[in-house]
Structures are given as C-alpha cells and as structure tokens.
Amino acid sequence: MLDLSAEIETFPLLRPFTISRGTKTETIVVTATVSSGDIVGRGECGPNARYEETPESVLDDILTVAPNVKVGLDRVGLRDILPPGAARNAIDCALWDFEAKAAGRPVWSLMGADAPAPVETAFTLSAAGPDDMSREAAANADRPLLKLKLTGSGDLDRVRAVRKQAGDARLIVDANESWDAEIYCEIVPALADLGVELIEQPFPATEDGVLADLDRPVAVCADESFHDSSSLAGLQDKYDVVNIKLDKTGGLTEAMSASRAARSAGFRVMVGCMVGTSLAMAPAMLVAQQAEFVDLDGPLLLATDREPGLEVHRSTIMPPRSELWG
C-alpha cells in the first residue's frame, strides 16, 4: 500500500529570468512523494500558467489521486485518471523513482534501456536588450550551445549582438509565441545567415497553420503546439522538431513514448524543461539520450538547487545518482 503526498516549494533564481510572457525571480514547483515503509520515490513538476495551471491547482490534482494510489493505481492507470500536465508528471516520476528503489535497479534498467550517458545542455540567455544579452553571451561563450529568449520587436538586433560575442557557441532561439508572419519573413533569412540552428515556437499555437506556407531555412520547433503523442498528426508540414517536456507530456512514461513516436513520424527531437531543480531534470535525462537538442539547464538558473543535485560541469550534465532520483 502506497502513500502519496505533495508540497509546494519555492527556489530563488540567480537573476531575473525574462521571456515574452513576463519576468520571474523565483520558480515555484510541486513535489510529489510516494512512500511505503522506508522506500520513498519523488517527482517534481513546474505548474505553467500558460496551460492554466497554478501551484495550488496542481497540488490539489495530485492529492485527489492519493486514494487511488493507496489501493494500487500504477503508471498505466494514472494516464486514465489525469490528463497530460504537471500533476501527472510529478506522480509518474515519483512512481518510477519508487519502483527503482524498491527493485534496487535504476529506472533505465527497468525500462530495458541502456545506461544514460552525459549530455550537453543548452544554456539560456534571458530576454533583454542587445547590450545586456551581448554581455551574457560573452560570459558564456565557452558553452557549446546558447539559447536566446526572444520577444518580437528588436529580436534581430539581439541575435546579432549575441553572435558577435558568442565565440564558437551554436545558437538556437525561442520566441515563445511572440512573432507574427511579418516578423518571421523579415528576420528568419538573417537568422539563417547568422548560423541560428533552431527557432522554437515562433507563432501562437492557435495561429501556427501559416508555417505550412512559409519557407523554413532554419528548423522550426513546436513547443506550445506540442504536448504529447496525440499532437503529432497536427504538426506535419509545419514543424521540423518537437520539444518534449515532461510537464507537458504528463510524465516520463508518455515522454519516452512521444519521443519514439516523433522520431518515427520524421520529427527531430528536443528535450526541454521548465525552470526547475535537478529533481525535475533527472528523469528527462533518459529522454535526452535520443534527443538532438537538449535544454535541461533549469538548475543552472537557480541560486539554490536540491542536495544532492545533478553533477554539472559547465554545460555537461552527468546522469543522476540514485540518491536524487531513479
């Protein structure tokens, strides 16, 4: 018999973090715990207002499932009770962690997968003026991949400023739904010339049909337009890449399935994250093994991470230790 509990936790950021939808100075997560006796499994999720989630609503959704978990609800049954989203993610990852600790085997072994290898993550530059982003690029020019948060107006100046200071770093950009077709047509050819390799979610998810009629000299990635495997059919001819986030798929179980389905459908895969702690990144490391783009830098943006956290060498993330997860 398993007990399921959850709590809301707050972690301050190293510095304010800005995207097209606003600025935050802390990240609020919800942590689910599954336990039986001395065996404890944990999972973390990041509620997202973009999907009408609040920490309180996600906490309530998790606790609503507690009686079902007590009488034997497993990860398969969980998918029938909760929709994709943050609450299901926290429970799914907590169940995986519990199963691994109960079996004395890592999650990757339970899955029949290979042991995970270290991965290189993108490092995100918060949206700001060209001068500020240029300074941030110079300070992080030794990282292999920089991700620029963009907001619409003035974006080309931002990218140009970063490119001048970024050394040999590869560049990807994330518009977070802030562009329209006019901005896209105006700046994308220049972004291609600047060596930008990927554009995340240029248009609002409800207005992305225009992509089917536009040239894509830079690969375009679906983030807000992609949630889980069921999203894939609607993305054909519009996107080249899908961004798999466990908080969107509703956990590691669906994230692994979505990764396989996306690659089978001809999409390239990116694995991403909300701003969270190492506990949220740890299960995503398994998805990252088959991803072409990895963006799991959440802990690098925090003033304080969990202990123990992931071991990170500049932008290289090592596989999680069992004390953290899995």
* Major sheet summary line: 8 strands, parallel
Q: What CATH first level of the largest domain would be assigned?
A: Alpha Beta
Please name the CATH architecture of the largest domain: Alpha-Beta Barrel
Helix/strand-derived category reads alpha/beta
The radius of gyration over CA amounts to 19 Å
Number of self-contained structural domains: 2
Tell me the CATH topology of the largest domain: TIM Barrel
* Strand elements, count: 14
Q: What does the overall shape look like?
A: globular
SSE string: EEEHHHHEEHEHEHEEEHHEHEEE
Portion in strands: 15-25%
Quick one: CATH superfamily of the largest domain?
Enolase-like C-terminal domain
Share in helix: 25-40%
Pick out the low-confidence regions.
none
Question: Which sequence of strands runs across the widest sheet?
Answer: 5-6-7-8-9-10-11-12
Mean residue pLDDT: 97
Q: Calculate the terminal CA-CA distance, rounded to whole Å.
A: 20 Å
Number of helices: 10
Describe the structure.
This protein is an alpha/beta fold and 326 residues long. The chain has helices at 55-70, 75-81, 86-103, 107-111, 130-139, 155-165, 181-193, 246-249, 252-264, 278-288, and strands at residues 3-19, 22-36, 39-45, 119-120, 123-125, 145-149, 170-174, 196-200, 219-222, 241-244, 268-271, 293-294, 312-313, 316-317. The chain folds into two domains: 3-104, 2-Layer Sandwich (Enolase-like, domain 1); 119-317, TIM Barrel. The protein contains ten helices and 14 strands. The strands form three sheets. The chain has an eight-stranded parallel β-sheet with strand order 5-6-7-8-9-10-11-12. A three-stranded antiparallel β-sheet has the order 1-2-3. Strand 6, helix 6 (155-165) and strand 7 form a beta-alpha-beta unit. Helix 5 runs parallel beside helix 6 (155-165) and helix 9 runs parallel beside helix 10 (278-288). The mean pLDDT is 97.
